[in-house]
Write a structure and sequence with these properties.
two-stranded antiparallel sheet; single chain; mainly alpha; 2 strands; 121 residues
Length: 121
């Protein structure tokens, strides 16, 4: 990936967050418990860019044969216009083993479901 640029992501802040994510993953890999990390900042503050860079760093560190593709697909939801980061359709290299799991959840979708649920009186 390219360097962090633009108004939506202060380079030092985004790079620091990627390093924190890599550090947390390193702790999990060495057996220091599970982690759940939520990036919760206002729109336009660089969440997408941080996730893209974190994924690219993990993908680049894979040993051959590689399981995951080198970058996430960067698309937009046609209904909401929001950014979607997903693993593109891919085929792992022969005999590759999954070194980690990538899972992304759109919280705005979850919150909209919660608002639609009827509330008890």
């Amino acid at each position: 990936m390219t360097a962090f640029v633009g108004a939506d992501c202060q380079q030092a802040d985004c790079q620091q967050m990627v390093e924190k994510l890599l550090g947390a993953l390193g702790e999990v890999v060495t057996g220091n418990g599970p982690r759940m990390i939520a990036l919760s900042v206002p729109s336009g503050e660089g969440k997408t860019r941080v996730v893209q860079e974190f994924y690219c760093r993990l993908a680049a560190a894979q040993t051959a044969p590689r399981y995951w593709p080198s970058a996430l697909a960067d698309e937009s939801d046609w209904k909401t216009g929001r950014k979607l980061l997903r693993v593109p359709t891919f085929s792992p290299e022969p005999k590759a083993k999954m070194p980690w799991l990538y899972w992304s959840v759109s919280c705005s979708w979850l919150f909209s479901l919660a608002r639609e649920q009827p509330r008890a009186a």
